[in-house]
Amino acid sequence: MDETIGQEVKRLKKDLLRRKEEVDDLRKLVNKEIDREFEPDVWDLTEREIEPFIEKTLAAVKENLVLKPEPQSLTSHRRIWGRPVLYFKRIFMNWADLYTKMILDKQNRTNRHFFDLLKVLVLRSRWSREKVKELEERLGKCEESLVVLINKAQDLQARLEQGKGSADTK
Hints:
Elements: H1 2-22, H2 26-30, H3 47-63, H4 82-169
Helix pairs in contact: 3-4
């Protein structure tokens, strides 16, 4: 029974690898260029996919960490009133830029704090995973020792009962 299960698992793995190679590139599958990235649902990630996803996401967050206002060029289509309108627009834009910079500075500080927090949480997760692995190994050793102790206790109990039985016959 165990042999057939092992053979079936090997067959399924082989079939899965073959299918994965066939659909290795999504562009080959649809026969055209894909114009957007499709992010996986994080709840569907496997244990092996989590670490690369974290690394990729942290890199993307770090890349977009600092927000900067983009300068806008001001032009006017008016012949006569164009220059005065542009003058007032520039005054307004300079005033709005000050306010925007204040908001962006605060947002950038918040982004840095959240990014640092995210890095610390990832580190804690890695440390916790290592600690769990260590504890699992220790638990395995304890279980092995417990089995040995139980066997020794049963042997001792059996010898005591034999010794008691032979003492009762005398």
